[in-house]
Amino acid sequence: MSHYYTKNNDELKSSEKDIFFKIDEKNFHFITDNGVFSKSGLDFGSRLLIESIVDVKSNNMLDLGSGYGVIGITYKHFNPESKISMTDINIRATELAKKNSQLNNVETEVLNGDGFDDLDQTFDLIVTNPPIRAGKDTIYQLFEESFEHLTTNGNLYFVMNKKHGVSSAIKKCNEIYSNVELVYRKSGYHIIKCTK
After folding, report:
1. Backbone phi, then psi, for 169, in 5-degree steps?
2. What is the homologous superfamily of the domain 17-195 according to CATH?
3. Beta strand 26-32 with 189-195: parallel, antiparallel or unpaired?
């Protein structure tokens, strides 16, 4: 069975769907499809993460595990001067991210890859809603690789639910980053900021 965090899901019949949502009084329109994360609408965790970073300034931001592009694209709307890169292992998701960038009139770089495959540059901001179903080892590897791809004093922001092990994730990040802090918490979801 295919999951949203696998490369190919061609056996899943495509059935594109339009979704609409609002962030800080700005309207957004996205196309989703079968085989991508949160295909029926903006998930609660991603919404909290977006709302927590819209005022965070960066020169170059990476949306890690971007899915169909909601985090990177909405961030670009609020931070037009920032260069946005988005990457995901799921081919269908990255094709949608390209479409959604055009649909929302923003310029982004969309890459298809597993984690930091083919990414040799550094970023001052990395944002992710990590793929919980991929397992703890995969997620912790993304935290470690994010550190290597951050500029000095750069930040990783991620969202995680208490029931998905946010306490142990924070403990892991404290082993890697110079500072780890809880930015926001609501309904079990935690927004965590890690500074290199």
Report:
1. -65, -40
2. Vaccinia Virus protein VP39 (3.40.50.150)
3. unpaired
